[in-house]
Amino acid sequence: MTEIAVNTGKPYKVHIGSGIIGTVGDEMKKLGIGGKTLIVSDDNVASLWIKPVKASLAASGFEVYDFVIPHGESSKNADNLIAILNFAAENSFSRSDTFVALGGGVVGDLCGFAAATYMRGISFVQIPTSLLAAVDSSVGGKTAIDLDAGKNLAGAFHQPKLVICDIDCFDTLPDEEFANGMGEVIKYGMFCDSELLDMLGNDIDIQATVARCVSIKARVVEADEFEKGERAFLNFGHTVAHAIEVLSGYSTPHGSAVAAGMVAITKACTAKGICEAEALDILLSLLKKYNLPDRFDYSVDDIYSATLKDKKNANGSITLVLPTEKGKSILKKCDYSELKEIITLGMK
Ligand code: GLY
């Protein structure tokens, strides 16, 4: 088992290992957590993993409740948020009780936001069951629901008390969902870790890979918990990716959109002479290896218009992560004409 400390305002540990899902009860007890627990999960994940989680919590003396939502992004909505809050209130959950997010990014974000708002904030624990949630959304405290106008438009920074990542959960992921997570894994290599890019070119050890990504994310979030500056590095490839997601009506998986978004920005930076060509070659070969797309056929105008609605776009500019060489990048505030130029070069 690998343990990674995340030293945010309220520090916590991420446990990554095989066969550790059943340690959740004991680990929570060791942290001094007791009382009631509300497991939030989706129907797919619950059918596979809720039993050992319930058993572990019950064996450690917790009173266990569960709230299961239908799987899929459309569940990350205000109705489910209110339903979870009402369920907790009806069952007399108090400030000393705990929510447990068992699932991928949708469940983690929704449960986390419910925990952030219930009685002005109670503890929650993340048990990510998808690769994408393990390397990204379960760590760093971003919680949210989607609004009609877009994804993650209502949310809060609320760090979990503990993250238990059992890599055995990835064995039950469909191939495309594993590829989806690999999009975020490659992102870490591209923006800051050339050694990770080398590792990804060979057979990977999934525990070591997740641990490496989580360590990077932990260091970035510790330096900038509330996204005032360098946390933006985690958004490498995401400006075009969010546009692709919006244009596809959210039918394109996040990791696939990030893959194409990384290609667009790296292509543009290579064409502008900001980035060494090797970085683009490595990116394209890794996307091929992990069955991820390198482009979607939207027009420059459509992508550009969609990026203007991005919530990271403020006061006439947007901060982009520009790759400079293999495993290196910089942040640059771009005005709209630079943004349009980058999209034009990147979509060629
Ligand atoms: N997913 C990007 C972040 O946590 O900041």
Beta-strand content: 15-25%
Number of domains: 2
Just give the CATH class of the largest domain. Alpha Beta
SSE sequence, one letter per element: EEHEHEHEHEHEEEHHHHHHHEEEH
Number of strands: 12
Number of helices: 13
Structural class: alpha/beta
Query: Outline, from the CA principal axes?
Result: globular
* Rg calculated over all Cα atoms: 20 Å
Helix content: 40-55%
Ends apart, CA distance between termini = 45 Å
- Uncertain runs are none
Heteromolecules bound: glycine
The CATH topology of the largest domain, please? Answer: Rossmann fold
Largest sheet: 7 strands, mixed
Question: What's the CATH architecture of the largest domain?
Answer: 3-Layer(aba) Sandwich
Summarize the topology.
Layout: E1 2-6, E2 12-17, H1 24-30, E3 36-42, H2 43-59, E4 63-69, H3 78-90, E5 98-103, H4 105-117, E6 123-128, H5 131-137, E7 142-147, E8 150-157, E9 162-166, H6 175-192, H7 194-200, H8 206-223, H9 238-247, H10 254-271, H11 277-289, H12 300-308, E10 313-314, E11 317-325, E12 328-335, H13 336-346
Helix pairs in contact: 3-4, 5-6, 5-8, 6-7, 6-8, 6-10, 9-10, 9-12, 10-11, 10-13, 12-13
Bound molecules: glycine (GLY).
